[in-house]
Amino acid sequence: MPFINIKITDDNVTSEQKQQLIQGVTQVMVDVLGKNPERTFVVIDEVNTDNWGIGGESITSRRQQGK
Amino acid sequence: MPFINIKITDDNVTSEQKQQLIQGVTQVMVDVLGKNPERTFVVIDEVNTDNWGIGGESITSRRQQGK
Amino acid sequence: MPFINIKITDDNVTSEQKQQLIQGVTQVMVDVLGKNPERTFVVIDEVNTDNWGIGGESITSRRQQGK
Amino acid sequence: MPFINIKITDDNVTSEQKQQLIQGVTQVMVDVLGKNPERTFVVIDEVNTDNWGIGGESITSRRQQGK
Amino acid sequence: MPFINIKITDDNVTSEQKQQLIQGVTQVMVDVLGKNPERTFVVIDEVNTDNWGIGGESITSRRQQGK
Amino acid sequence: MPFINIKITDDNVTSEQKQQLIQGVTQVMVDVLGKNPERTFVVIDEVNTDNWGIGGESITSRRQQGK
């Protein structure tokens, strides 16, 4: 009964890519732990780059500086 | 001092329904554990059906297939 | 397909109380949104009072002060 | 390698304020635990006031009542 | 800069299996979104079966009933 | 009404350090957003180094390799 939450920046991720993320991480649960995929939930959170920080700066700011 | 996070799909949940969710889960904390409702936080996350997976597929895809 | 995460302090919550929390919040999802309980997950996190803060202090410290 | 998730109501928080939140909490990790800021992630979630409850009511409802 | 949180029941998952979970989900981020693995964090939460509910019951209780 | 969740590795963080983390991040909320500290919750999760991955490896494994 795994629950997986994926947080990524909101960089125009397509529905197809989201499908691949869901399929991929679910398969890892099946392969490694033998989990039932019908009992495996995946939730993807897309986060604005203003709202994600690293190194004490937002991703928006880091990208403007070419980091 | 409970904190409750509810994740649901974004299926046109009304403000009235959100009020009922907040009221209901807060009451459970009061009834079962004697918690102070003024110190009980509830946060509802509404998740796009493209971003919620089960059985290795998005909810969007499952609904298209009538699952 | 709701997912509910309940965070509470680790104050000797019994298995019976956890059952009541799980039963209660699941019922709220059924009553308010018509959700399928077999697709409703609840995860309870019990947090040490050293690790929970409010008002800029840990709960441990607040209790020592009679707050 | 800390990960910090900040949940606040979506009250027109500016990009500048988000930068200050990210900078501030990252600095706390550096000052208290000597963490590497380049390995410190901060994610800010802005939550609609309909979706945040306290005292069994939404923040929207509480503000309408002047609470 | 993905952050992935995996919640599973605490069923004697080995260090080797945890390594495989971490390796597997990180690779999905690389393959699908081209993410930098050195900027991909994975956190595994192991949850006691008393603290995980489905169908309004704890996993502990469901297992006792042979569900 | 902020809620802040801090995830760190379980490296013998002392109660005093936890107090400083709680005090520090709460003060950031007060300084930047004018939030009421009595309505600001902080929850610290200490994560075993087997359960935290970066670069596709657990922290335990990386430390053994001197990374």
From TrEMBL, chains A, B, C, D, E, F:
Its EC number is 5.3.2.-. Residues 2-61 form the 4-oxalocrotonate tautomerase-like domain. Keywords: Isomerase. It holds the Pfam family Tautomerase. The keyword Isomerase applies. One of its GO terms (molecular function) is isomerase activity. The keyword Signal does not apply. Gene3D superfamilies: Macrophage Migration Inhibitory Factor. It is an enzyme of class 5 (isomerase). NCBIfam families: taut. Belongs to the 4-oxalocrotonate tautomerase family. This is Tautomerase. It comes from Ammoniphilus resinae.
